Amino acid sequence: MQTLVNHQLAKILFMLKLNYISVFFDGQPAFQNINLTLNQGKNLAVIGESGCGKSTLLKSIYGLIDLNEGEITWKNKPIKGPKFNLIPGFKDFKFLEQEFNLMPYTSVSENIAKHLSRQTPTETKEKVRFFLKLLDLEHLENKKVKNLSGGEKQRVALGRALAKKPELIILDEPFSHIDHFKKHKLRHALFSYFKRENISCIIATHDTEDVLGFSDKTLILKDAQQIDFRETETIYNQPKNKYCASLFGEVNTIIPEAFQLKHEFKTDELIIYPNEIIISPKTNFTAEVTDCLFKGNHYKIYIKHKQFNLVMQHHCKVEAKTINFSIDVKAIKKRLN
Ligand SMILES: Nc1ncnc2c1ncn2[C@@H]1O[C@H](COP(=O)(O)OP(=O)(O)OP(=O)(O)O)[C@@H](O)[C@H]1O
Protein backbone atom coordinates (compact mmCIF):
# COMPACT_ATOMS: atom_id res chain seq x y z
CA MET A 1 0.00 0.00 0.00
CA GLN A 2 2.78 2.40 1.06
CA THR A 3 4.69 1.58 -2.16
CA LEU A 4 1.60 2.42 -4.20
CA VAL A 5 1.22 5.77 -2.40
CA ASN A 6 4.92 6.56 -2.92
CA HIS A 7 4.67 5.63 -6.57
CA GLN A 8 1.65 7.90 -7.08
CA LEU A 9 3.35 10.71 -5.19
CA ALA A 10 6.40 10.40 -7.41
CA LYS A 11 4.13 10.54 -10.44
CA ILE A 12 2.63 13.82 -9.26
CA LEU A 13 5.92 15.38 -8.19
CA PHE A 14 8.02 14.52 -11.23
CA MET A 15 6.28 16.94 -13.50
CA LEU A 16 8.97 17.06 -16.16
CA LYS A 17 11.07 14.11 -17.24
CA LEU A 18 13.78 14.16 -19.89
CA ASN A 19 14.54 10.56 -20.70
CA TYR A 20 17.94 10.34 -22.41
CA ILE A 21 17.04 12.90 -25.05
CA SER A 22 19.27 13.93 -27.98
CA VAL A 23 19.04 16.33 -30.92
CA PHE A 24 21.44 16.23 -33.86
CA PHE A 25 22.00 18.84 -36.56
CA ASP A 26 23.73 17.50 -39.67
CA GLY A 27 24.94 14.48 -37.72
CA GLN A 28 26.45 16.59 -34.94
CA PRO A 29 24.83 16.53 -31.49
CA ALA A 30 23.40 19.85 -30.25
CA PHE A 31 22.84 17.94 -27.00
CA GLN A 32 23.00 14.24 -26.25
CA ASN A 33 21.62 11.82 -23.64
CA ILE A 34 20.18 14.43 -21.32
CA ASN A 35 18.48 12.64 -18.47
CA LEU A 36 16.74 14.41 -15.59
CA THR A 37 13.52 15.06 -13.73
CA LEU A 38 12.15 18.30 -12.36
CA ASN A 39 9.61 18.53 -9.58
CA GLN A 40 6.72 20.92 -9.35
CA GLY A 41 7.66 24.47 -8.32
CA LYS A 42 11.39 23.82 -8.67
CA ASN A 43 13.87 25.98 -10.50
CA LEU A 44 16.45 24.41 -12.81
CA ALA A 45 19.43 26.35 -14.16
CA VAL A 46 21.08 25.17 -17.38
CA ILE A 47 24.65 26.38 -17.64
CA GLY A 48 27.67 25.76 -19.83
CA GLU A 49 29.94 27.48 -22.32
CA SER A 50 28.59 29.07 -25.49
CA GLY A 51 27.37 26.54 -28.07
CA CYS A 52 27.02 23.63 -25.60
CA GLY A 53 23.33 23.19 -26.46
CA LYS A 54 21.38 25.21 -23.88
CA SER A 55 19.00 27.04 -26.26
CA THR A 56 18.35 23.94 -28.36
CA LEU A 57 17.52 21.99 -25.20
CA LEU A 58 15.06 24.67 -24.06
CA LYS A 59 13.40 24.80 -27.47
CA SER A 60 13.09 21.00 -27.48
CA ILE A 61 11.47 20.98 -24.04
CA TYR A 62 8.91 23.51 -25.28
CA GLY A 63 8.20 21.28 -28.28
CA LEU A 64 9.74 23.45 -31.00
CA ILE A 65 12.31 20.87 -32.11
CA ASP A 66 11.85 17.17 -32.83
CA LEU A 67 14.00 14.85 -30.76
CA ASN A 68 16.27 12.35 -32.48
CA GLU A 69 16.46 10.15 -29.39
CA GLY A 70 14.62 9.77 -26.09
CA GLU A 71 11.40 11.20 -24.79
CA ILE A 72 10.17 14.22 -22.84
CA THR A 73 7.15 13.78 -20.60
CA TRP A 74 5.12 16.30 -18.65
CA LYS A 75 2.91 14.77 -15.96
CA ASN A 76 3.59 11.42 -17.63
CA LYS A 77 2.32 12.58 -21.05
CA PRO A 78 4.80 12.84 -23.93
CA ILE A 79 5.66 16.27 -25.33
CA LYS A 80 5.74 16.05 -29.10
CA GLY A 81 7.82 18.14 -31.47
CA PRO A 82 6.57 20.07 -34.57
CA LYS A 83 6.38 16.90 -36.70
CA PHE A 84 3.50 15.71 -34.53
CA ASN A 85 2.02 19.04 -33.46
CA LEU A 86 0.27 21.52 -35.74
CA ILE A 87 0.71 24.33 -33.23
CA PRO A 88 4.24 24.26 -31.89
CA GLY A 89 4.74 24.75 -28.16
CA PHE A 90 3.13 23.10 -25.19
CA LYS A 91 0.02 24.63 -23.63
CA ASP A 92 1.06 24.43 -19.95
CA PHE A 93 4.43 26.04 -20.72
CA LYS A 94 5.57 29.53 -21.58
CA PHE A 95 8.84 30.12 -23.37
CA LEU A 96 10.77 33.35 -23.36
CA GLU A 97 13.20 33.11 -26.26
CA GLN A 98 16.24 35.28 -26.80
CA GLU A 99 14.20 37.13 -29.49
CA PHE A 100 11.17 38.66 -27.84
CA ASN A 101 8.45 38.52 -30.58
CA LEU A 102 6.41 41.41 -29.19
CA MET A 103 3.71 43.46 -30.96
CA PRO A 104 5.72 46.60 -31.76
CA TYR A 105 2.87 48.99 -32.60
CA THR A 106 0.85 48.43 -29.44
CA SER A 107 1.49 49.64 -25.90
CA VAL A 108 3.25 47.83 -23.06
CA SER A 109 -0.08 47.23 -21.28
CA GLU A 110 -1.74 45.91 -24.43
CA ASN A 111 1.11 43.48 -25.04
CA ILE A 112 0.62 41.99 -21.58
CA ALA A 113 -3.20 42.15 -21.58
CA LYS A 114 -3.45 40.27 -24.88
CA HIS A 115 -1.99 37.19 -23.23
CA LEU A 116 -4.11 37.13 -20.07
CA SER A 117 -6.79 34.48 -19.70
CA ARG A 118 -10.30 35.74 -20.39
CA GLN A 119 -11.71 37.63 -17.44
CA THR A 120 -13.68 40.77 -16.62
CA PRO A 121 -12.22 44.16 -17.70
CA THR A 122 -11.60 45.07 -14.03
CA GLU A 123 -9.74 41.79 -13.41
CA THR A 124 -7.70 42.32 -16.58
CA LYS A 125 -6.77 45.82 -15.46
CA GLU A 126 -5.72 44.56 -12.03
CA LYS A 127 -3.64 41.74 -13.49
CA VAL A 128 -1.88 44.07 -15.95
CA ARG A 129 -1.18 46.47 -13.08
CA PHE A 130 0.28 43.59 -11.05
CA PHE A 131 2.73 42.60 -13.81
CA LEU A 132 3.64 46.22 -14.61
CA LYS A 133 4.62 46.65 -10.95
CA LEU A 134 6.42 43.30 -10.71
CA LEU A 135 8.51 44.13 -13.77
CA ASP A 136 9.00 47.80 -12.99
CA LEU A 137 7.15 48.91 -16.12
CA GLU A 138 4.46 51.12 -14.58
CA HIS A 139 5.93 54.33 -16.01
CA LEU A 140 5.92 52.82 -19.53
CA GLU A 141 2.43 51.32 -19.60
CA ASN A 142 1.17 53.45 -22.52
CA LYS A 143 4.39 53.57 -24.50
CA LYS A 144 4.52 51.72 -27.82
CA VAL A 145 6.81 48.71 -27.68
CA LYS A 146 8.74 49.73 -30.81
CA ASN A 147 10.05 52.76 -28.90
CA LEU A 148 11.38 50.80 -25.92
CA SER A 149 14.99 49.95 -25.12
CA GLY A 150 16.23 46.35 -25.34
CA GLY A 151 15.99 45.87 -21.57
CA GLU A 152 12.48 47.33 -21.45
CA LYS A 153 11.36 45.04 -24.29
CA GLN A 154 12.79 42.07 -22.43
CA ARG A 155 10.75 42.98 -19.35
CA VAL A 156 7.56 43.31 -21.46
CA ALA A 157 8.30 39.88 -22.95
CA LEU A 158 8.56 38.48 -19.41
CA GLY A 159 5.21 40.06 -18.54
CA ARG A 160 3.65 38.53 -21.61
CA ALA A 161 5.06 35.09 -20.78
CA LEU A 162 3.67 35.27 -17.26
CA ALA A 163 0.30 36.87 -18.10
CA LYS A 164 -1.48 33.54 -18.30
CA LYS A 165 -0.01 31.64 -15.38
CA PRO A 166 2.11 28.83 -16.82
CA GLU A 167 2.91 25.62 -14.95
CA LEU A 168 6.43 25.73 -16.32
CA ILE A 169 8.24 28.79 -17.57
CA ILE A 170 11.28 28.38 -19.80
CA LEU A 171 13.63 31.35 -19.88
CA ASP A 172 16.54 31.74 -22.28
CA GLU A 173 18.90 34.33 -20.79
CA PRO A 174 15.96 36.44 -19.57
CA PHE A 175 18.01 39.29 -18.10
CA SER A 176 20.66 39.63 -20.80
CA HIS A 177 19.47 43.10 -21.89
CA ILE A 178 18.70 44.42 -18.41
CA ASP A 179 21.13 46.63 -16.51
CA HIS A 180 22.70 45.40 -13.27
CA PHE A 181 20.78 47.79 -11.08
CA LYS A 182 17.36 46.59 -12.29
CA LYS A 183 18.46 43.00 -12.78
CA HIS A 184 19.03 42.29 -9.04
CA LYS A 185 15.62 43.59 -8.05
CA LEU A 186 13.81 41.98 -10.96
CA ARG A 187 15.49 38.60 -10.55
CA HIS A 188 14.57 38.47 -6.88
CA ALA A 189 10.97 39.56 -7.55
CA LEU A 190 10.50 37.06 -10.37
CA PHE A 191 11.97 34.00 -8.68
CA SER A 192 10.00 34.78 -5.50
CA TYR A 193 6.84 35.02 -7.62
CA PHE A 194 7.55 31.61 -9.19
CA LYS A 195 8.02 30.05 -5.74
CA ARG A 196 4.86 31.67 -4.37
CA GLU A 197 2.80 30.48 -7.32
CA ASN A 198 4.51 27.07 -7.46
CA ILE A 199 5.60 27.66 -11.06
CA SER A 200 8.45 25.41 -12.23
CA CYS A 201 11.19 27.23 -14.07
CA ILE A 202 14.03 26.34 -16.41
CA ILE A 203 16.53 29.07 -17.06
CA ALA A 204 19.52 29.02 -19.42
CA THR A 205 22.05 31.55 -18.30
CA HIS A 206 25.67 32.68 -18.31
CA ASP A 207 25.18 34.69 -15.11
CA THR A 208 26.08 32.90 -11.86
CA GLU A 209 23.81 35.30 -9.99
CA ASP A 210 20.82 33.63 -11.69
CA VAL A 211 22.06 30.27 -10.45
CA LEU A 212 23.37 30.70 -6.92
CA GLY A 213 20.61 31.56 -4.51
CA PHE A 214 17.74 30.93 -6.94
CA SER A 215 18.04 27.58 -8.69
CA ASP A 216 17.29 24.38 -6.81
CA LYS A 217 19.01 22.16 -9.36
CA THR A 218 21.65 22.84 -11.98
CA LEU A 219 22.38 21.05 -15.22
CA ILE A 220 25.88 21.52 -16.61
CA LEU A 221 26.48 20.95 -20.31
CA LYS A 222 29.75 20.79 -22.20
CA ASP A 223 30.20 19.88 -25.86
CA ALA A 224 26.54 18.79 -26.02
CA GLN A 225 26.99 16.34 -23.11
CA GLN A 226 25.45 16.32 -19.63
CA ILE A 227 28.37 16.80 -17.26
CA ASP A 228 26.45 17.18 -14.02
CA PHE A 229 22.91 17.43 -12.70
CA ARG A 230 22.54 17.83 -8.97
CA GLU A 231 21.39 20.25 -6.29
CA THR A 232 22.98 23.62 -7.05
CA GLU A 233 24.67 23.83 -3.66
CA THR A 234 26.20 20.37 -4.08
CA ILE A 235 27.46 21.23 -7.56
CA TYR A 236 29.16 24.33 -6.19
CA ASN A 237 30.56 22.65 -3.08
CA GLN A 238 31.72 19.47 -4.78
CA PRO A 239 32.45 20.41 -8.39
CA LYS A 240 33.19 17.40 -10.57
CA ASN A 241 36.02 19.16 -12.37
CA LYS A 242 37.57 22.53 -13.10
CA TYR A 243 35.14 23.27 -15.96
CA CYS A 244 32.15 22.90 -13.61
CA ALA A 245 33.72 25.06 -10.90
CA SER A 246 34.80 27.69 -13.43
CA LEU A 247 31.19 28.32 -14.43
CA PHE A 248 30.82 30.02 -11.02
CA GLY A 249 33.94 32.17 -11.37
CA GLU A 250 37.73 31.91 -11.40
CA VAL A 251 39.09 28.90 -9.51
CA ASN A 252 42.41 27.22 -8.74
CA THR A 253 43.60 23.69 -9.29
CA ILE A 254 46.42 22.59 -6.99
CA ILE A 255 48.31 19.39 -6.37
CA PRO A 256 47.81 18.71 -2.64
CA GLU A 257 51.28 17.17 -2.32
CA ALA A 258 52.92 20.42 -3.47
CA PHE A 259 51.29 22.19 -0.53
CA GLN A 260 52.04 19.50 2.05
CA LEU A 261 48.37 18.48 2.02
CA LYS A 262 48.84 14.92 0.79
CA HIS A 263 47.41 13.48 4.00
CA GLU A 264 44.54 15.95 4.16
CA PHE A 265 43.26 15.39 0.61
CA LYS A 266 43.75 12.04 -1.05
CA THR A 267 43.30 13.28 -4.62
CA ASP A 268 45.88 14.10 -7.28
CA GLU A 269 44.25 17.46 -7.94
CA LEU A 270 42.16 19.74 -5.76
CA ILE A 271 39.92 22.56 -6.90
CA ILE A 272 39.90 25.52 -4.56
CA TYR A 273 37.95 28.78 -4.70
CA PRO A 274 39.76 32.14 -4.33
CA ASN A 275 38.41 32.72 -0.80
CA GLU A 276 40.10 29.47 0.30
CA ILE A 277 43.59 30.91 -0.06
CA ILE A 278 44.45 33.24 2.77
CA ILE A 279 47.27 35.61 3.57
CA SER A 280 49.02 34.25 6.67
CA PRO A 281 52.37 35.81 7.57
CA LYS A 282 53.52 32.80 9.59
CA THR A 283 53.48 30.16 6.83
CA ASN A 284 56.39 28.96 4.70
CA PHE A 285 54.57 29.47 1.42
CA THR A 286 55.62 32.62 -0.31
CA ALA A 287 54.26 33.96 -3.57
CA GLU A 288 54.90 36.83 -5.92
CA VAL A 289 51.92 39.17 -6.26
CA THR A 290 51.31 39.62 -9.99
CA ASP A 291 48.11 41.68 -9.87
CA CYS A 292 45.63 43.14 -7.41
CA LEU A 293 42.18 44.15 -8.68
CA PHE A 294 39.55 46.16 -6.83
CA LYS A 295 36.28 44.22 -6.74
CA GLY A 296 34.13 46.39 -4.49
CA ASN A 297 33.83 44.48 -1.22
CA HIS A 298 37.15 42.67 -1.73
CA TYR A 299 40.33 42.62 -3.85
CA LYS A 300 41.11 39.85 -6.29
CA ILE A 301 44.79 38.99 -6.04
CA TYR A 302 46.79 37.02 -8.57
CA ILE A 303 49.84 35.28 -7.14
CA LYS A 304 52.57 33.00 -8.42
CA HIS A 305 53.99 30.26 -6.22
CA LYS A 306 56.53 28.02 -7.97
CA GLN A 307 54.72 26.70 -11.08
CA PHE A 308 51.28 27.59 -9.71
CA ASN A 309 49.45 30.70 -10.85
CA LEU A 310 46.75 31.20 -8.25
CA VAL A 311 43.89 33.59 -7.65
CA MET A 312 42.80 34.55 -4.16
CA GLN A 313 40.72 37.23 -2.54
CA HIS A 314 41.48 39.55 0.33
CA HIS A 315 39.47 42.20 2.16
CA CYS A 316 42.02 44.98 1.54
CA LYS A 317 44.52 46.06 -1.10
CA VAL A 318 47.85 44.23 -1.18
CA GLU A 319 50.73 46.58 -1.98
CA ALA A 320 53.57 44.15 -1.18
CA LYS A 321 55.42 42.41 -4.04
CA THR A 322 55.48 39.09 -2.15
CA ILE A 323 53.16 37.56 0.43
CA ASN A 324 52.98 34.51 2.64
CA PHE A 325 49.84 32.49 2.22
CA SER A 326 48.13 29.28 3.28
CA ILE A 327 45.39 27.05 2.01
CA ASP A 328 42.30 27.12 4.22
CA VAL A 329 42.05 23.36 4.82
CA LYS A 330 39.23 23.71 7.33
CA ALA A 331 37.04 25.68 4.91
CA ILE A 332 37.72 23.28 2.04
CA LYS A 333 36.93 20.22 4.15
CA LYS A 334 33.71 21.84 5.35
CA ARG A 335 32.71 22.57 1.75
CA LEU A 336 33.54 19.06 0.54
CA ASN A 337 31.65 17.27 3.32
N1 LIG B 1 19.10 25.18 -36.48
C1 LIG B 1 20.35 24.76 -36.35
N2 LIG B 1 20.98 24.15 -37.37
C2 LIG B 1 22.23 23.69 -37.24
N3 LIG B 1 22.98 23.81 -36.13
C3 LIG B 1 22.39 24.42 -35.06
C4 LIG B 1 21.06 24.93 -35.13
N4 LIG B 1 20.77 25.49 -33.92
C5 LIG B 1 21.86 25.32 -33.16
N5 LIG B 1 22.84 24.69 -33.83
C6 LIG B 1 24.15 24.29 -33.29
O1 LIG B 1 23.93 23.50 -32.12
C7 LIG B 1 24.89 23.81 -31.12
C8 LIG B 1 24.20 24.25 -29.85
O2 LIG B 1 23.61 25.53 -30.07
P1 LIG B 1 22.79 26.30 -28.95
O3 LIG B 1 22.27 27.56 -29.55
O4 LIG B 1 21.81 25.36 -28.37
O5 LIG B 1 23.95 26.62 -27.89
P2 LIG B 1 23.90 27.53 -26.57
O6 LIG B 1 24.52 26.72 -25.48
O7 LIG B 1 22.51 28.02 -26.33
O8 LIG B 1 24.84 28.73 -26.98
P3 LIG B 1 24.87 30.26 -26.42
O9 LIG B 1 25.25 30.18 -24.96
O10 LIG B 1 25.93 30.88 -27.25
O11 LIG B 1 23.49 30.85 -26.64
C9 LIG B 1 25.81 24.88 -31.72
O12 LIG B 1 26.94 24.24 -32.23
C10 LIG B 1 24.98 25.49 -32.83
O13 LIG B 1 25.79 25.99 -33.86
From TrEMBL:
A GO MF term: ATP binding
Key words of the record: ATP-binding, Nucleotide-binding, Transport
A Pfam family annotated for this UniProt entry: ABC_tran
InterPro entries from the UniProt entry: AAA+_ATPase, ABC_SmlMolc_Importer, ABC_transporter-like_ATP-bd, ABC_transporter-like_CS, P-loop_NTPase
PROSITE patterns noted in UniProt: ABC_TRANSPORTER_1 (PS00211), ABC_TRANSPORTER_2 (PS50893)
Domain of life: Bacteria
Residues of the ABC transporter domain: 16-248
Nucleotide-binding among keywords: yes
Record's keyword annotation contains Amino-acid biosynthesis: no
Name the record gives this protein: ABC-type Fe3+/spermidine/putrescine transport systems, ATPase components
